[in-house]
């Protein structure tokens, strides 16, 4: 009777042995060459990956709070069955600040879980993404309105064909200069408004109209800002002196 009981006990020991198998431990250090102090609250992440694919091994990674500066010592506990089930393995590391990766290993360091020894992991500084600046808010009063020129440098605009200016949402500006049609590119930042050199058709008109057109293009090129009051628009130079007076068409 004793032999069957002993055999059953041995069988149970064999069955539960894998569940009670000791964890393997990978130890080592993580370092970088830059002379940079880590911010408070930074975290070290160390994990196993399969070689050579670099795929993370599920359950074989840990985030470790950082105390002090490099080299950073770590100890990673891994289930013993990982050594035989996952195939060739390597260790990777990252240093994070919140969700931002500051340093990362460029390649996995090979490790043998059946004969683990201390590993040394070099991490390199990661280029932080620059925040994308928000585009300036376009003044809805200025954009998409057809403005009619009423004066240039204080002199009333005189032309059988209305002189106009319209700025599109993409800041392309065009209109009529009284004789020729023109287009240019505007740049807008708050109340700062500027125009590039205007390109125009080459129609010939009276000397008076041509002189007025030349003055209009020169005033556009000197524009540095603007003011809107009701239905009136004034284009200003860098000193705030009015260059061109305009009113919204249809007013």
UniProtKB/TrEMBL annotation:
Gene3D superfamilies: 2.40.128.270. Residues 1-21 form the signal peptide. Residues 141-240 form the DUF306 domain. Transmembrane segments: none annotated. It comes from the Bacteria. Keywords: Lipoprotein, Signal. Pfam families: META, YscW. PANTHER family: DUF306 DOMAIN-CONTAINING PROTEIN (PTHR35535:SF2), HEAT SHOCK PROTEIN HSLJ (PTHR35535). This is Putative lipoprotein. It comes from Devosia crocina.
């Amino acid at each position: 009777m004793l032999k069957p009981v002993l055999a059953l006990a041995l069988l149970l020991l064999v069955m539960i042995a894998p569940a009670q198998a000791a964890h393997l431990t990978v130890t080592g250090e993580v370092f970088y060459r830059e002379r940079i102090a880590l911010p408070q609250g930074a975290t070290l992440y160390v994990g196993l990956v399969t070689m050579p694919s670099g795929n993370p091994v599920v359950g074989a990674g840990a985030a470790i709070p950082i105390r002090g500066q490099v080299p950073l010592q770590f100890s990673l506990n891994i289930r013993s069955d990982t050594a035989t089930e996952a195939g060739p393995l390597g260790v990777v590391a990252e240093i994070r600040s919140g969700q931002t990766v500051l340093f990362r290993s460029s390649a996995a360091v090979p490790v043998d879980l059946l004969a683990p020894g201390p590993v040394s992991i070099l991490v390199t500084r990661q280029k932080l993404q620059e925040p994308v600046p928000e585009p300036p808010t376009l003044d809805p009063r200025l954009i998409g309105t057809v403005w009619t020129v009423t004066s240039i440098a204080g002199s009333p605009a005189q032309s059988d064909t209305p002189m106009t200016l319209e700025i599109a949402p993409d800041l392309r500006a065009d209109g009529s200069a009284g004789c020729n049609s023109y287009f240019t590119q505007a740049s807008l930042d708050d109340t700062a408004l500027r125009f590039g050199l205007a390109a125009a058709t080459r129609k010939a008109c009276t000397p008076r109209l041509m002189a007025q057109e030349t003055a209009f293009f020169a005033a556009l090129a000197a524009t540095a800002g603007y003011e809107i009051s009701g239905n009136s628009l004034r284009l200003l130079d860098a000193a705030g002196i009015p260059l061109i007076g305009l009113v919204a068409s249809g007013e």
